[in-house]
Structure prediction request, 174 residues.
Amino acid sequence: IHYFRNVLGEHDFTPLSFSKSGSVLQSPVVFLGYGITAPSDDKNLIYDSFEGVNVKDKWVVVLRDIPQDLDFKKKVHINTFGLANHKAMIARKNGARGVLMVDSLQSKLMKLKFEGSAGDAGIAVINISSDVALRILGIELNEWKAMLVRLDKGEMISKEGEALVKKWEETGLL
Prediction:
């Protein structure tokens, strides 16, 4: 976690209660939209943010919660899979080094709440603001807003992020 303090600043991030403790490794970053993997059922198709994206040994940036503009039945179907601790578990199963959780357009860190798990996720899970996410992913606010509209309709979007890796190289931490 000291890497985040050195790179982002003391007030730009907060580890979640179920985050793994200890050192974290610098790695490439990939944005996975909502970071949800929900199986299909008799009424809903599979929803998988990880499909076709290699997250092994990378940090994943995911949005909190679930897409907002889905119909009611689909929201009910994926709701359980949208919990932060479930997203962390899926990221870990897919080989991610850690999860950076962001609350869509909140420029300040959101207030933490109990996430439904007292256990350790097995990987670092860190809350960041949307401002930090934009810096990490190297994108502008208008591109971020356009991606959010598409994601809230249920589209899958992934994006590689280079900014954090470059910043770590600049500080000599890599």
